[in-house]
Specification:
The protein has 594 residues and is α+β, with helices and mostly antiparallel strands. It folds into 3 domains: 1-30, no CATH class; 94-233, Penicillin-binding protein 2a (Domain 2), CATH 3.90.1310; 240-283 and 302-574, DD-peptidase/beta-lactamase superfamily (Beta-lactamase), CATH 3.40.710. It has 17 helices and 16 strands. It has helices at residues 9-17, 23-72, 121-131, 137-144, 159-168, 190-193, 213-217, 219-223, 238-254, 316-325, 361-367, 370-380, 382-391, 418-425, 434-445, 470-486, 560-574, and strands at 94-95, 101-114, 150-157, 173-182, 195-201, 206-212, 232-233, 259-266, 272-278, 334-336, 342-343, 346-347, 358-360, 500-509, 515-528, 535-542. Strands 1, 2, 3, 4 and 7 form a 5-stranded mixed sheet that branches. Strands 9-8-16-15-14 form a 5-stranded antiparallel sheet, sandwiched between helices. A two-stranded antiparallel sheet has the order 5-6. Strand 14 and strand 15 (515-528) form a beta hairpin. The longest helix has 50 residues, at 23-72.
């Protein structure tokens, strides 16, 4: 930039010669310089204002577009995306097949102490022990006055307890919001639901995780925020479950049993409509697992899937059905059940040393003959028998969708020779769960197709591979019906509902080997209606004894059968089954046209 001097010498000399004041030249040049500087400053200011205006225009356009987008979008609850966000405590509900609530979340609070903020630890410890009787005042005082700065006092408290703690008025006692799992029906379906507890905990939230049952099996689904409005729908029917538990509990007490279990299954879909294990527990206050003694003594033990027992004569129908399926016999084929019968050096006897002589295959099942089914098993052969029972799902843990089911793997003979083949034919030497038995009987009931038991509601039938012919299945169903009308399960008849089934009484094994003489597992496997089965019901009693007579009676016909009959009587109407007349052949009547 070239600066013009304010007093140029040439112009000064020229002005003096003309007699003018030279200072006017300086003032004029100064004025011109100020005008140039003002014009430059104005140009810079106008440029800055233009840039600032463009910036504000863009900002308002962005805000306007964002407001428009929000105005036209669906409202969505905000959710933190970062891993460092607050603990997620949300958990989907669990409902039965009709939408009735089985498990949900409930807002509550946890109680903790900031010990350095406690004004009067002595009073706080004393009053807390009065509010919560399970707390020890001396231990609380020791914790309050020790080195710990933070102390959990109670993970869950009621609103009444929260108000009582408020009334203590100590600023060191604080509350943390919580969501806990609530089971509004208490003990109902406890072994299926299992229970939930707290995982990761903070003062403002706690993670709710499944610890057993379907809560643990489907933990990932239930904890997924995307499934918050999609409850887990089970196959259970709450009304039928309640009726089954009430009847089984009464029957267990009446028969002086140590424990009991029942399974009600749809034979076409495998849906488990009801499953009961007694004794039970309240999942809202789940007890601690037993660390000593027999696991089955704990109320947490699920007898329907974890209980692996020798179920006895309920297995005989499988032997008869396989023999018919292989074309070896028919229901009317005569079998010699007279003794003696020895296999592998061991004598095969009958209950109370009975001798039925030569009887039909159907009567072998009706009279529950050990020697009759043993001779059928020898005709079938060990390899064929194993293949058939394996196809019924009796060699692996049941696929029932609760975590406890994986522990109920059947116990099989270490060597499967002729002796094992005979004993397995009448339910000894092989141990399975009642859930296994329900699935296997469903194959007979539905015409020979295998179904897998499931706790999830299904849209329709779910028939698997064929394991026996329709003829064999129909013959087996007819035998099961005859067991009730004229066999060992006469107490199982329910007026208006044609019931078929098979009894099974097996001595309980001793832990040190051998069998108890006065302890049994009594089972009744039921299909109904027998002429067109829709459901299978398994009732098993642990160490039952019926004492109304002169001598104690432990067989399934006297113990499990009456309980199952009462259960069918109660639940059949709830299942929508109308009582009716059983279809029979019109023997000796010929229809003619006019």
């Amino acid at each position: 930039m070239i600066r013009t001097p304010l007093r140029p010498l040439a112009r000064i000399l020229e002005a003096r010669n003309r007699g003018e004041d030279p200072r006017t030249i300086e003032h004029e040049n100064l004025r011109l310089r100020h005008e140039v500087m003002h014009d430059a400053a104005r140009a810079r200011a106008e440029g800055r204002l233009l840039v600032l205006g463009v910036f504000f225009l863009c900002a308002f356009m962005v805000v306007g577009v964002r407001i428009g987008m929000l105005a036209t979008s669906e409202p969505v609850e905000p959710r933190a995306e970062s891993t460092g966000a607050a603990i997620s405590a949300s958990r989907a509900d669990i409902v039965d097949r009709n939408g009735n609530l089985l498990a949900t979340n409930f807002e509550t609070h946890a109680l903790y102490a900031q010990t350095r903020q406690l004004i009067d630890p002595q009073t706080a410890a004393t009053k807390l022990a009065q509010i919560f009787p399970d707390l020890d005042a001396q231990k609380l005082l020791s914790d309050f006055t020790g080195r710990r700065k933070f102390l959990w006092i109670k993970r869950k408290i009621s609103p009444e307890q929260m108000q009582a703690v408020h009334d203590i008025g100590d600023p060191g006692l604080l509350f943390g919001p919580r969501e806990m799992r609530l089971y509004p029906n208490g003990r109902l379906a406890a072994h299926v639901l299992g229970g939930a507890g707290f995982g990761v905990e903070g003062v403002s939230a706690a993670e709710v995780i499944g610890v057993a049952g379907v809560e643990k099996q489907f933990d990932e689904y239930l904890r997924d925020p995307a499934n918050g409005n999609k409850p887990l729908e089970l196959s259970l029917d709450l009304t039928i479950q309640a009726a089954a538990e009430r009847v089984l509990d009464g029957g267990m007490k009446l028969m002086n049993a140590k424990g009991a279990t029942s399974v009600l299954m749809d034979v076409h879909s495998g849906e488990v409509i009801s499953v009961v294990s007694l004794p039970s527990f309240d999942p809202n206050d789940r007890p601690r697992p037993a660390v000593r003694g027999d696991a089955s003594d704990s109320p947490l033990f699920n007898r329907s899937v974890q209980g692996v027992y020798e179920l006895g004569s309920v297995f005989k129908i499988f032997t008869a059905a396989q023999a018919i399926d292989m074309g070896l016999v028919e229901a009317s084929t005569i079998v010699d059940t007279s003794g003696p019968m020895k296999v592998g050096g061991y004598r095969i006897g009958e209950f109370r040393n009975k001798n039925y002589g030569k009887i039909s295959v159907a009567d072998v099942i009706v009279h529950s003959s050990n020697r009759g089914t043993g001779r059928l098993a020898l005709q079938i052969g060990a390899e064929n028998q194993q293949a058939f029972l394996k196809s019924l799902g009796l060699f692996e843990a049941t696929p029932f969708e609760i975590v406890e089911a994986t522990g109920g793997k059947p116990l099989l003979p270490p060597r499967w020779g002729e002796l094992s083949s005979v004993t397995v034919s009448y339910g000894h030497g092989i141990s399975t769960s009642p859930m296994h038995l329900a699935a296997a009987y469903s194959a007979i009931a539905n015409g020979g197709r295998m179904v897998a038991p499931t706790i999830l509601r299904q849209p329709g039938p779910r028939l698997g591979q064929r394991v026996m012919s329709e003829h064999a299945a129909a013959s087996a169903r007819a035998m099961l019906r005859k067991v009730v009308t004229s066999g060992t399960a006469s107490f199982g008849e329910v007026k208006g509902y044609a019931v078929g089934g098979k009894t099974g009484t097996a001595d309980k094994p001793r832990p040190q080997g051998g069998y108890f003489e006065d302890k049994v597992i009594a089972t009744f496997a039921t299909v109904f209606p027998a002429h067109d089965p829709k459901y299978v019901l398994i009732v098993t009693l642990d160490e039952p004894v019926e004492t109304s007579g002169d001598k104690p009676r432990r067989t399934a016909g006297w113990t499990a059968v009456p309980v199952a009959a009462e259960m069918v009587r109660r639940i059949a109407p709830l299942l929508g089954l109308r009582p009716g007349v059983e279809p029979r052949e019109m023997a000796g009547i010929t229809l003619t046209s006019n």
